[in-house]
Automatic annotation (TrEMBL), chain A:
A GO term for molecular function: ATP binding
Protein name: ABC transporter
SMART domains: AAA (SM00382)
Domain of life: Bacteria
Pfam families the record matches: ABC_tran (PF00005)
Source organism of the structure: Streptomyces bungoensis
Alphabetized UniProt keyword annotations: ATP-binding, Nucleotide-binding
ABC transporter domain boundaries: 13-219
UniProtKB/TrEMBL annotation, chain B:
Lineage, top ranks: Bacteria, Bacillati, Actinomycetota, Actinomycetes, Kitasatosporales
Transmembrane segments: 32-52, 72-97, 118-144, 150-176, 183-200, 232-254
Protein name (Swiss-Prot/TrEMBL): Uncharacterized protein
Keywords assigned: Membrane, Transmembrane, Transmembrane helix
Amino acid sequence: MAPGSTPAPATVLRATDVHKSYGKHPVLRGAELTVGPGQLVAVVGENGAGKSTLLKILAGVLPLDRGELAVPGTLGYCPQEPVLNTALTVEQHLRYFVAAHRLPDLDRGHELVRLLGYERYARSTAGQLSGGTRQKLNLTLALLHDPDVLLLDEPYQGFDWETYLRFWDLVDDLRARDRAVVIITHLVFEQDRFDVLADLNDGRLTPRASSREDNHAGA
Amino acid sequence: MPAPETSPTRSLYSPFPTALRFSVRDQTRNRLAGLLLLVFVPVWYLVMNAMASGEALDFKLYATGQVLRIDGGHLTLISAGLNSVTMITGFVVFDAVRKALAFDRRLVFAGYRQSTLIGAKTLAVTAVATAIALYTALAILFFWRPTGAGWFAVLAGFAIIALTYGAFGLLLGVLVKRDLEGFFLIIMGGLMDTFLQNPLGNPLANKPVLQWFPSFGPMQFAVGGAFGHTTLWGHLALGLGWAAAFSTVGLVIFRIRTRKRTGR
C-alpha cells in the first residue's frame, strides 16, 4: 500500500498470541503487541529471551507457529547485524533500494546520510566502512521509504555519543510525522523517552509503567 | 503529515537494469579470480603442454564412433582450458552468490520481485561465464593454432562448461553454509570431471561411463570440432542441459531462501 493513500490507521502493527518454538524449545508463548502511529516502543529482555525472534516475526523474516500478525501500513526492518553488500558503495546501496521501493529519487536517502553524519563515505564500499558506519547505512536502508513503522534490533550498538544523539533526533522527527518506532534492546537508558516499555519474559510481553501519559498501546 | 505520494511516479532507477548492473559488479569484483585468470591459465597451459606434447593419444568421438589419433599436447590443452574454466567460473559465481544471499533477501523484502533478481543474476552469470571462456580460449592460441572452425569449437566447449560450472557455483552458493565446502566441491568436481575425459591421465577415458559427467559434452564438441572436423550439436546441447539443470535447481532454492515468510 502506498504511504499516504489512506487515512492514518489506529494501529500500525498488531501481534496477537504469537507462539514460536525452535524444536521443542518454546521461545514465544503468546506474546502480544499493539503499536499506534507515532509511538515509540521498547521491547526489553535479557540475552536469549527471544527479542530478536520476536522482531524477525514482526518483520516477516521468520514464520510464526501460531498467532496473528497485522501490519496495515509500510514497514521498515533494521536487523541487528548489518545486511549489506560489501562490494557496493553507500551511494550504490541507496540506488539499489530506491529501485526496490520504486522511489522517484535519492533525496530521502541523501537526507538520512546527512542526518546520521556519514556523507564523506558516500563513495566507500560497505566493506571499507567501520562497524558504526555500517550500522548507519543499515539504518538508512530501513528508513529509505519512510515506513509507517520501523523495527530496530539493538540499533545503537557501535554508535558513538554524537551519533547516538543524532539517532534520537531522527526518531523524534519520525514520531512528529506519526511514524512509529519499535526498538529491541537489552539495556534501556532514558526510559522516559519511550511511550511503552515492554519486558519480554517467559515468551510473553508485559508492559511496564511509563512516564508518558499518551500511552495507548497495550503489550 | 502524510508521506509524499511515491508509487505512481516513475523511479529514477528501474529495478531490472539496476539489479543487472550490480549483479555484474558482484561477479567481477573477485580479485583472486582475476589473478587466477591472468597467471594460472597461462601457467597451467604451459605446464600441461610441456608434459603431454608429442605424445599421440586415442580419443573416441561417441557420436560417430570414430577414434581419433591426435597430439596429446593439443588434447591436453583443451582439458587444461576446460579445467581452468570450471574452477574459475565456479569460484567466482559461488563466492558472489553466497555473499549476496542475505542482501538479496533484504532486497526482496524491500520490494524487489524475486523474478527480477533471478533474471538479473542469470544474465550476469551468463555474461561473466562467457567472458571467462573467451579469455581462456584466446589464451590457448599462444600454445596452439587450430583452424578457425576448430578454435570456435573449443570456444563453444569452454563457454558451455563455463555456464555449467557457473550454474553449479550458483547452486552451491545458495545451498552450502561455508566457503570451504563450496570451494572443495568446485575444485574437486571440476578436476575429476575434466581430467577423466582425457586419455592421457585416465586409462579409462573413452569408456561409456564418462558420458555421465558434465564436461563430456563440451569435451566431445571441442575435440570433434578441432580434430575431427565434425560439429556435434547434440553434445553441445547435452552440456547445456547440465547448465540448465544446475541453474534450475539453484534458482528454485534461491527463490525459497529469499521469500517472505508471512502473508501480511
